[in-house]
Amino acid sequence: MLIRLSHALALSAALAITTAVDAQQPPGTPATQKEAPVNGGKSVKPASKVSETGVKLVVEPRAMDLLRAVSEKLAAAKTLSFTATVSYEYPSKLGPPIVYTMRYDVTMQRPDKLRVVIPGDGPASEFYYDGKSMTAYAPAENLAAVVDAPPTIDDALKAAYRNAAIYYPFTDLLVADPYAALSGGAILAFYIGPSAEVGGTKTDMVAWANNDVFLQAWIGTEDKLPRRIRAVFQADPLRLRHDMQLSDWRLDPSLPADAFVSLKAQAAGRMPFASPAPPPRGVKPIVNGMATHPPKAKSGQQPE
User: Fold this and answer.
1) What is the residue range of 11's domain?
2) How do residues 30-58 score in pLDDT, each as one tens digit?
């Protein structure tokens, strides 16, 4: 039971870790945000760097302004909810990668409440944060890990990653300053063009990169909400793709008082709120300010 719940908790971090590239493990590597927002959050002048292929790397103000518009829209919402459907490629012995999909139903209330429900693929899991405690719950096993939590969503997400390897691929959209998380370390950003084929609405396509990851984002032309984000990580020699569709956006909805607690989780059996196993070397989180050292497994916990 311990191992199965650990796997359920670990699934939430699956898109944020670097693993050995072989036939059994996915190699996604996250972007580590080490730098402050480009030019202090102001319009960015074109860069003069040149890529390994000889292409000039330019940071276009128009692209960065679109990212800023997204960030301001999300940061201004006191409450919000959305669904993230994430597909990631997993190497196979046959050569072509296999695609797995996870769905996250997300609800948050700034500055100190968050709920993430993960129906699958893989073991279902739920995460609750109410400003005082964090609960990670595995419904199939009816086991929950509960721990005291910091007073803000940003710090709670850092603590969840540091202590239990829990990470969500949309974390940059939840923090108090999304622009700092999204823009830090930019070496490339440019406007691609319009699209009417994503999210059932007109969007603007933007490309963005730092030294760790190349992203393509589809941003609603009118509402400035992110509809799709596609990533390829520099440290991944297979260049496997991570694709996140964002839908069912609701900004400032009225939420019930019990939206961020679970009676089933409160009544479930208990286990330590801890990392299921030591992650592979080189694991780094995307969000600026998160732990730079991988979490360690607690005594008595071993990978399966």
Assistant:
1) 2-271
2) 333 333 333 334 444 444 465 566 677 89
For residues 85 and 199, what is the distance between their CA atoms, to the nearest angstrom? 12
Domain with residue 242: its CATH number is 2.50.20.10
Three-state DSSP at 193 gives: strand
Q: How far apart are CA 109 and CA 210, in angstroms?
A: 30
The total domain count for the chain is 1
Closest C-alpha among 178, 181, 183, 149 to residue 166: 149
Which residues have a Cβ under 8 Å from the Cβ of 90 and sit 6 or more positions away? Answer: 26, 97, 98, 99, 100, 240
Q: Does the residue 89 lie in any domain?
A: yes
Using one digit for the tens of pLDDT, what is the confidence trace for 251-286?
999 999 899 999 999 999 999 998 876 655 655 554
Predicted TM-score (pTM) of this structure: 0.75
Sign of CA dihedral 197, 199, 200, 202: negative
Q: Which two tokens stand for residue 165?
A: 């390897």
225: its two tokens: 């909400």
